[in-house]
């Protein structure tokens, strides 16, 4: 029998590695996908600050899982803790039962809490996201005070959950009062875009005066709330550090009026700002701290830590299925200890200062950089329209299109930098605390080159807008 061999079809060009994955993601995942739009890469390997895409390209990651990866990707200390836990046969899921891993995590956490806070505190393990811990903290304070409502700030970011408890039927877990009450929005001091059009210490002073007078005004429309919640450095809001004096004033104002103060350290915690916890810069002692991201050593974990006097919950008052994941607790304990032991908090302060100084020098050369600010390794570069008129504070309108071009130019140069802030015009640098001197120089060189190139390209149409 003769077998006819069909001439081979001319081979179709092989899709670029990762292209098919990206295509399927675009088709299957929700329109709300976020980072995936900014960074159309398929990471296949990551180590420290370096991420390698399926196409073989390597990137320096200045996003670090939105500030989660204090030690960068796959740090040996984290991997070892995870492997050790897996090999030990410890149960991976145990609701909120006691385990050796949880005990050890709690030890590591309490050992590193700000002095004056850890001694009389309780911890509640929440669902694993930062937003879960924010919900828990607000509900805790509603229970403790019997009040509703919260004081929150312009530019704040605390998460994305809404409504789950509202649609739950179990009345007991909704007590003391149904619903979260009103949110009173207060001005957060933002030097470059001062809410009072003043800027500097005078702007922060006005923010204090406004808050105090509003709360004391019998016709101010504010019913005494269950809590005030704030970030010591606003991350998603555009990397806006609050002056220490303003934070101390918020502590005084809330204490004098019997309003619990919740500090959201989801992004600032574990050394990010050059202090283990951002509250330590001002020396204030909050009534509750909301923690997530880095405390899980790259795995999902969230807790609220609070003074024991607020522990008015009944058993089961704030329950949940995923609370204190075993691997995340092991990875988180290892991370917190390593950060403290290796002096990474101090290093974050030093390297952060160096980066900020270099970026300020760049701002003097490139008028598209309106402001450089931050604390430790939480740094923001606000991009503006240099041709627009400056306002009374010397600030110019945000340049969101330029910011997108800079982000793309960074990616083309092997640098992952995300945007945030008002109008998404702030480049946010969140490198791991383990960033080396060499990596620091490479980040700065690539960033400077990207800003120069994007600024030189002018305000024309965006290249290759992605679906
Ligand atoms: C300060 C702050 N709080 C809360 C959250 C919400 O955390 P998650 O995204 O894990 O829900 C974030 C997330 O970026 C945050 O930066």
TrEMBL record:
Q: Which UniProt keywords apply?
A: Aminotransferase, Pyridoxal phosphate, Transferase
Q: Does the record bear Transferase in its keywords?
A: yes
PROSITE patterns recorded: AA_TRANSFER_CLASS_3 (PS00600)
Q: Where is this region: Disordered?
A: 1-20
Q: Which Pfam family is one of this chain's hits?
A: Aminotran_3
- Give the cofactors, semicolon-separated: pyridoxal 5'-phosphate
What pathway does the UniProt record associate with this protein?
A: Amine and polyamine biosynthesis; ectoine biosynthesis; L-ectoine from L-aspartate 4-semialdehyde: step 1/3
What family is it from? Belongs to the class-III pyridoxal-phosphate-dependent aminotransferase family.
Query: What name has this protein been given in UniProt?
Result: Diaminobutyrate--2-oxoglutarate transaminase
Native organism: Kitasatospora indigofera
């Amino acid at each position: 029998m003769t077998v006819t061999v069909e001439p081979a079809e001319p081979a179709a060009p092989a899709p670029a590695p990762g292209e098919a994955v990206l295509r399927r993601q675009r088709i299957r995942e929700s329109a709300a996908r976020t980072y995936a739009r900014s960074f159309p890469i398929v990471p296949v390997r990551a180590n420290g600050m370096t991420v390698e895409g399926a196409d073989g390209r390597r990137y320096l990651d200045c996003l670090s899982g939105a500030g989660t990866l204090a030690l960068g990707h796959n740090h040996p200390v984290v991997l070892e803790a995870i492997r050790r836990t897996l090999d030990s046969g410890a149960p991976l899921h145990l609701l909120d039962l006691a385990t050796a891993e949880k005990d050890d995590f709690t030890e590591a956490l309490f050992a590193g809490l700000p002095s004056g806070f850890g001694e009389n505190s309780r911890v509640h393990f929440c669902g694993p996201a930062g937003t879960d811990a924010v919900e828990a903290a607000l509900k805790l304070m509603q229970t403790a005070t019997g009040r509703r409502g919260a004081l929150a700030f312009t530019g704040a970011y605390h998460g994305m959950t809404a409504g789950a408890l509202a649609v739950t039927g179990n009345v007991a877990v909704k007590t003391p009062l149904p619903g979260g009450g009103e949110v009173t929005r207060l001005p957060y001091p933002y030097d470059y875009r001062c809410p009072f059009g003043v800027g500097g210490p005078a702007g922060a002073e006005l923010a204090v005066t406004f808050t105090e007078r509003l709360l004391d005004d019998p016709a101010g429309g504010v019913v005494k709330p269950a809590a005030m919640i704030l970030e010591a450095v606003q991350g998603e809001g555009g990397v806006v550090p609050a002056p220490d004096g303003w934070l101390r004033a918020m502590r005084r104002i809330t204490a004098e009026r019997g309003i619990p103060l919740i500090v959201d350290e989801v992004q600032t915690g574990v050394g990010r700002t050059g202090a283990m916890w951002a509250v330590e810069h001002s020396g204030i002692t909050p009534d509750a701290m909301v923690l997530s991201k880095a405390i899980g050593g790259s795995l999902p974990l969230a807790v609220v830590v609070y003074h024991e006097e607020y522990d008015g919950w009944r058993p089961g008052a704030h329950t949940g299925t995923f609370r204190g994941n075993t691997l995340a607790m092991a990875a988180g304990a290892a991370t917190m200890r390593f950060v403290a032991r290796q002096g990474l908090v101090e290093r974050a302060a030093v390297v952060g200062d160096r980066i900020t100084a270099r970026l300020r020098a760049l701002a003097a050369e490139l008028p598209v950089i309106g402001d450089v600010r931050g604390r430790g390794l939480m740094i923001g570069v606000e991009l503006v329209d240099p041709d627009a008129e400056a306002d009374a504070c010397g600030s110019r309108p945000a340049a969101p299109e330029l910011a997108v071009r800079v982000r793309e130019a960074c990616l083309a140069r092997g640098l992952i930098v995300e945007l945030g802030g008002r109008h998404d015009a702030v480049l946010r640098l969140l490198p791991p605390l383990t960033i080396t001197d060499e990596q620091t120089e490479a980040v700065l060189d690539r960033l400077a080159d990207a800003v120069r190139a994007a600024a030189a390209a002018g305000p024309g149409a965006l290249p290759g807008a992605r679906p």
